[in-house]
Amino acid sequence: MLKVLFLCTGNSCRSQMAEGWVRALKSDAIEAWSAGIEKHGMNPLAMKVMAEAGVDISGQYSKTVDELPRREFDYVITLCGHASENCPYFPGKAKRLHAGFDDPPQLAKDAKSEEEALVHYRRVRDEIRAFVEAMPGNLPAE
């Protein structure tokens, strides 16, 4: 079973979505974890759009890399530029890969309503789903 860590700045939105999608779609082949460089708490709109798609991430929580159980990851996938540039060193065989996705809270900061904000969250949710659906074929060979 592949062990994958999704890493973002705050572990509140994109990395949580990715972890949720892997658990929902690929749990037979991939063990997913998510973490952040910092801890920003779970984003309620991310939870809402994932629930709309039938994936409950409300049991997940925002955490830093240091809070993860000790394990060797096969892949560390950064989902934002800040995490890619500040990704901590992972000893062992973990391959680092950057798969950038837009930041829904940043895109939605000027939204006039929650519904307008959710449009951004849904688009990124669906892009992350497509990335996860293509796994592990879209990951570099061991």
Automatic annotation (TrEMBL):
Q: Which domain of life is it from?
A: Bacteria
**What keywords are annotated for this sequence in UniProt?**
Arsenical resistance
User: Which ranges carry the Phosphotyrosine protein phosphatase I domain?
Assistant: 2-138
What lineage does UniProt assign to this protein's organism? Bacteria, Pseudomonadati, Thermodesulfobacteriota, Desulfovibrionia, Desulfovibrionales
List the GO biological process terms: response to arsenic-containing substance
Official protein name in the record: Protein tyrosine phosphatase
Coiled-coil ranges (or none): none
